[in-house]
Amino acid sequence: CIRLLFAKYSSRGPALIPRMKIKHRIYYITLFSVVLLGLIATGMFQFWPHSIESSADWTMDKRSVHDAPLVRLPVSSPIPERGDLSCRMHTCFDVYRCGYNPKNRIKVYIYPLQRFVDEVGVPISSTGLSREYNDLLSAISDSDFYTDDVSRACLFIPSIDVLNQNSLRVRETAQALAMLPRWDKGMNHLLFNMLPGGPPDYNTALDVPRDRALLAGGGFSTWTYRQGYDVSIPVYSPLSADVELPERQPGPRRYFILSSQTAIHREYRAELERLKEENGEALLLLDKCSNLSQGAASVRKRCCKGQVYDYPQILQESSFCVVLRGARLGQAALSDVLQAGCVPVILADSYILPFSEVLDWKRASVVIPEEKLSEMYTILKSIPHRQVEEMQRQAQWFWEAYFSSMKAIGLTTLQIINDRIYPYAARSYEQWNNPPVVKWASVNSPLFLPLIPPRAPGFTAVVLTYDRVESLFRVITEISKVPSLAKLLVVWNNQNKSPPEETLWPKIGVPLKVVRTKENKLSNRFFPYDEIETEAVLAIDDDIIMLTSDELQFGYEVWREFPDRLVGYPGRLHLWDHEMGKWKYESEWTNEVSMVLTGAAFYHKYFNYLYTYKMPGDIKNWVDAHMNCEDIAMNFLVANITGKAPIKVTPRKKFKCPECTALDGLSLDQTHMVERSECINKFASVFGTMPLKVVEHRADPVLYKDDFPEKLKSFPNIGSL
Predict the structure, then answer these.
(1) DSSP per position, 422-440
(2) For 472-491, how does the pLDDT look when each residue is reduced to its tens digit (9 = 90+)?
């Protein structure tokens, strides 16, 4: 190309400048070519990934353990300090190495493979690089966290395998760590260890001296875990890779409780055998098979009275699976149990559960103190069936997302550390704990919400109406004064009459939406409308004009502290009629309550889905046919799911509507009370139990009755009885 350009130029040359001599032309061509090649080389050097240490970067594809260079450790090599228990991210970790980057992601450097031996040539590890650690490093090197540029790294991971302390020479391993070029007393270094300690004491953290290095450990106790610094990880189960279990839907199983661990302390086994005697076939107690030869096959078998069971397949046959501490706190059995979708019952005092910094284990397990092993059966029986199914589903998802492979364990660990360094970009509680594909999009079960839902979203008021337009508009006007109201949804239940024109509706400061129903059903008030975007729902009738904005705001504040409860105003009670031998509905003024009227009550929108799609038997159809008792049905549903009573707020015990007549309101009909007693008996029969709980409790605002200036009270306008 260069020659052609110059030839073209030369053809026109005589008209512009005198023709160059041949030797000068060759000189300039050569000079131009050298400059061009220099620019290209400089650009490649500037933008091609490179590093001072990149020539020896970690990659198992290029180098095997046997090809790794040999490093001898002199006897006099320095040994790191034992480990600083006071280390926290702000004292022992240099966050400035991580810096700012648009992706808010730390960069992780893996040291090149080396074979460390002592002065006489004995390796520091009896196993070298295990398959599990190889998988872990490979997963990290293939992830977005990895960098081969040591100068850009925020976190350093040694290629020294310390997963299993049993295979290590503790002193020599510590010396090898200290020889790493970027060690700097362990600053910004991460070690992975699943089997810490050794006989006879079995320490709950790695015994290798490690200075300030972070430890991702598989058996931490509250004594050795450095909160917010170390990461508690699971003990990986090799069966996860070798056994693929068939899919099993949540629900009742053949056994209620199953114990499959083989190395249980004799005192625990004796207690489990006693529980077995008391509860019979509900509990299956397995042990290792003494009549099978030792080997890989025997690891996958369990026996009970000569009968052989396949392991871990048998775990799928039980609702709850016992996970007891062994010599170490962390047990691979926990991973097997989660994989089977069996709810783990964990009895290991002081054990820091894997990834408990971000995972809500209440959703997937039952933790019982070791001293209460004898009460285990009673404790588990008190958990509602619906909650057990949710826990089974959550347990299996925890395994799939965080336990199923060394890759999952390693990347979860790095994500937790990443969230600490970039907290403004950290994953939320929901992202960590909710499966990515949920049955009901954006709906969280209130059983497992954070302690207090956020204040910002507020609540959605759902007003069920038929044709009382004047009363409806008054209700809308009053509700609009509540500070936390986010949206108002009017459910127009009259198919023979159109709702008022848009211009006639009250002007309020929040969105107002009217939904027209296809049939006049009371259950329409509990339908999961797409327009309900908040967690909290206020169900309110179109004639409840007496509640003040302070009463409604206070009710919402109480619900925020108890998002799994029904929170309402007038309370009602169910009683057992000994003469008639059946349940009776009671609406008299009493201090005991077991229900709150949903004519004005707060609840979580999750219960709309359960009411519409999961209500037992024919209860929903019965309610719609009788045009009564939808509030009792909702009370039954919530109490059955949560095992908790509703919460009554403020002194108000009745809804008084002076303008309403007997023709206006359903609840004023003379057959109303008789039918509501029938409802309670009908629903108790369908549920197979009486889930309603009686309490003598009422929530009032602080300073409600105190002789205090009204303007200093948060809720001064609280109505009377």
Answers:
(1) SGGGPPPHHHHHS-SS-SS
(2) 999 999 999 999 999 999 99
